[in-house]
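Need residues for this backbone.
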């Protein structure tokens, strides 16, 4: 199982048939591309799939008054 960003990148690069990276800052073209697209792809994946670990929950503030309509 992938446990670091570098191992995740290397899995993706292997799937594309590209050469692996040693580190995100190794100066290679592939490392540069991984750094460029990672955040965008991560956020897109989290928006598109209902992962239970990626749900943010919060408590809403109570309204000071009862609404005029739509309240049951």
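Answer:
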């Amino acid at each position: 199982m992938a446990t670091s960003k570098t191992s995740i990148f290397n899995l993706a690069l292997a799937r594309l048939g590209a050469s692996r990276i040693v580190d995100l800052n190794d100066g290679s073209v592939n490392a540069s591309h991984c750094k460029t697209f990672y955040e965008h792809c991560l956020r897109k994946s989290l928006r598109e799939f209902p992962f239970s670990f990626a749900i943010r929950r919060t408590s809403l503030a109570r309204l000071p008054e009862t609404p005029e309509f739509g309240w049951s």
